[in-house]
UniProtKB/TrEMBL annotation:
One of its GO terms (molecular function) is peptidyl-prolyl cis-trans isomerase activity. This is Peptidyl-prolyl cis-trans isomerase A (Cyclophilin A). Gene3D superfamilies: Cyclophilin-like. Residues 1-24 form the signal peptide. It comes from Fusibacter tunisiensis. Keywords: Isomerase, Signal. Residues 52-239 form the PPIase cyclophilin-type domain. Its EC number is 5.2.1.8. It comes from the Bacteria. InterPro entries: Cyclophilin-like_dom_sf (IPR029000), Cyclophilin-type_PPIase_dom (IPR002130). Pfam families: Pro_isomerase.
């Protein structure tokens, strides 16, 4: 997502991802105060009994744990779609190289759809959840989800420019510990506090990296979006219990 996330420039410019997801966004939001200790759930394996999502692709399997207590509504939304096999036989149809892969971009509301028929959901903010590599978030429009089925998985490293900006913003926004986590794990700190994080990948990072490195082209619908030259089908996406 170099044209959207701008990994080689400061975090503020990377917020153009919000504009890419929402046609109605007209300006870059100000940086929010996101200071909060990272929840250890993002840096450890799931516990026995935790709900997980398993995505099967031709390139391998991706598994992520769901944060039911921290993002209950977002998790329920995704579980409902996964249980109904909505995602199965779908695809990763948006790739922003080195930064994120997106599931089911084509499910956004049609331009001619009546507003009364659209269902929006409020943003669930959990300050202790961060957009480190492997974070799974739902996409929204100006504080609300564009579609409950839209999700993206964060990938890629944090640039030195981003690290420098976090240090410049100081302890009120990014603690030393959080900066160190981003340096080690990678991710997209500019998105913290602006999306609903519903889960964290714990297995299949090599699959995410492989998808991120596939050749892409500009989308016909939005020149800021990139789509894979060849479809990346999702064979199956299911909800399971970690044992």
């Amino acid at each position: 997502m170099r044209n959207i996330f701008y990994r080689a420039i400061p975090i503020l410019l990377m917020l153009l991802f919000l504009v890419g997801c929402s046609q109605s966004a007209t300006q870059t939001p100000e940086v929010q105060n996101v200071r909060e200790d990272l929840n250890p759930l993002q840096l450890q394996l799931p516990s026995s009994g935790d709900p997980i999502v398993v995505i099967e692709t031709e390139l391998g399997v991706i598994k992520f744990v769901l944060f039911e207590k921290l993002s209950p509504q977002g998790v329920d939304i995704l579980k409902g779609y996964a249980d109904s096999s909505y995602y199965s036989n779908g695809s990763f149809d948006r790739i922003e190289p080195g930064t994120a892969i997106q599931i089911d971009y084509k499910s956004t509301f049609p331009d001619d759809m009546d507003d009364a028929d659209k269902t929006y959901y409020p943003l669930e903010k959990s300050p202790e959840l961060k957009h480190i590599k492997g974070a799974v978030s739902l996409i929204y429009q100006v504080g609300e989800f564009v579609s409950p089925s839209l999700a993206f998985i964060v990938g890629g490293d944090v640039s030195q420019e981003e690290i420098d900006l976090m240090k410049y913003l100081g302890e009120e926004s990014y603690s030393k510990e959080i900066i160190e986590v981003y340096q080690k794990e990678g991710g997209m700190p500019s998105l913290d506090g602006r999306f609903t994080i519903i889960g964290q990948v714990y297995e299949g990072f090599e699959v995410i990296e492989a998808i991120n490195q596939l050749p892409v082209k500009e989308s016909n619908d939005n020149k800021q979006h990139h789509v894979p030259l060849e479809p990346i089908p999702i064979k199956k996406m299911s909800i399971q219990i970690y044992e």
